[in-house]
Specification:
Strand order of the largest sheet: 1-5-6-4-3-2
Largest sheet: 6 strands, antiparallel
Distance between the termini: 55 Å
CATH architecture of the largest domain: 2-Layer Sandwich
Radius of gyration: 22 Å
Number of domains: 2
CATH topology of the largest domain: Phosphatidylinositol Phosphate Kinase Iibeta, Chain: A, domain 2
CATH class of the largest domain: Alpha Beta
CATH superfamily of the largest domain: 2-Layer Sandwich
Structural class: alpha+beta
Low-confidence stretches: 76-81, 202-217, 267-308
Mean pLDDT: 75
Order of helices and strands: HHEHHHEEEHEHEHEHHEHEEEEEHHE
Shape: globular
Amino acid sequence: MARRQTLIARSIIYAILNVNEDGSPAQKPSLLTRILRIFYLYWLSFQLVRQDLFSALRSVWEIKEDDYKSSFDMKQSDRRKAKPDLYPMATMGYSGSTFFRTLDSAYLVKSVPRQFEHDFFKNDLIGPYVDHMKVNRSSLLVHITNFLASTHTSVGVLLGLAPSHHIVMENILHGQDQESQAGPKHKWESWDLKPTSYFFPERDIAGGAFATEATMSRLADEFHDKIRLSRDMATQFQRQLENDTLLLAKYNAVDYSLFLVRISAQDTPYSDFQSPPQSGEPGQTGETGETGTEPTSPAQQPFAPADATSWRTGVASSDGKEMYRAAILDFFWAKHTARAKAMTGLIRSYNLIDDQGPMSITTDSNEYRERFLKMCMDIVEVEED
């Protein structure tokens, strides 16, 4: 297992660090290599899909290319310590995908193993996603910085041992690992939330008696509390959710989730959460004499300055005792794909016997959007003036 993770991680890193401007591998393999790699189990040659679009997005987000690549570039000191190129993580959420994180914890690499999902993202959603993110700097859609696709079919891909597609995205849990190493001062909690009122066969058929523990663990989390926001912040949150999910509904996406992070500390006011802004960071005047309102790179300090309202870096609770981060994840399941249509027909047939209603993956995209928005706003508690 360790060898599998190491080889997959190194093939991902090699693709990111050794690439032409068009996203193709910088070094053309020999004929012998092209023949032999058909039999590889774990090592894959990747191409960066639409490198031009994602490079432009990173520029919009003010991520410097050298800083970005350094997150994936293992230093000599790390080699001597035999540290991995990417740190393998347990499966997060209920999507069933595998995750790695960079050693600096700034980025996650997530597999998108199902063809109908990565085809939808590649063929239908990339362009609209990039356009949306360019003009919506406060978007809650997770920041995707690269999309990798295998350039060849191998035995490992055919057997499902090596995922053929991955996305690289910003890690909104950035800072948790660094704080743990220094001695925890704050309590970090996270939830992967989606509407639970839908029919889930693993949960609702025979009360889950036929589902394994591993299957049940991939169900959506439930948040039995409230996020406490000022009225202005709650309004901004709602409007941004409406804006982002309108895009997803337009392209028939369903089954996406809200990844919510809560950072708290007993008797610690919000001001004590702050890390001093460094030169050029938001909250501090740089060479241009202007003051920014958003961090310039996800690899910088994880906490936002006091005047920021970014859900990527941290929004203060109305009582000043907690900080929240949030991002919309897993928007790769589209209603118009063949897999979704097949599942819809299957559930309709089952409902003739036991009417349980639609699943989150078989419902209408506008209907899913309504339930998702209601779920998100139901967990908000507004501070009254």
